[in-house]
Amino acid sequence: MSATLSTHVLDTGRGEPAGGVLVELFRGEELVATGVTGTDGRIAELAEVDPGPYRLVFHPESEFFARVELDVALGEGHFHIPLLVSPYSCTTYRGS
Questions:
Q1: What does the buried/exposed string (b/e) look like for 58-90 if buried means 16 or more CB atoms within 10 Å of the residue's CB?
Q2: What is the pLDDT of residues 29-62, one digit of tens each?
Q3: Which helix (H) or strand (E) holds 6?
Q4: Residue 85, domain CATH
Q5: Separation of alpha carbons 38 and 45, rounded Å
Q6: Which label site among 3, 18, 31, 82 has the fewest CB atoms less than 10 Å from its CB?
Q7: How do residues 59-73 score in pLDDT, each as one tens digit?
Q8: Model pTM greater than 0.90?
Q9: What is the longest distance spanned by two Cα atoms in the chain?
């Protein structure tokens, strides 16, 4: 079975979705998927991959955070990983 991944980016400083954010997915050093958030801040289908360890890299347009990296362990099924970013903080969580 495989793992699927979606994401979205919210600019909590402006109180709106963050469109135009580059998102990359790596397995080790290999780039396996890329996407850019739409005007709603979402990438509905970033990748379908084998379960395992991955690195999710966000490139938000932020005054402070130029790059946000997350190491994740994807199992079987669907994973939704949002990023909330402002000029002062960022956070993420495993969505549904």
A1: bbbebeebeebeeebebeeeebbbbbbbbeeeb
A2: 999 999 999 999 999 999 999 999 999 999 998 8
A3: strand 3-11
A4: 2.60.40.180
A5: 12
A6: 31
A7: 998 889 999 999 999
A8: yes
A9: 40
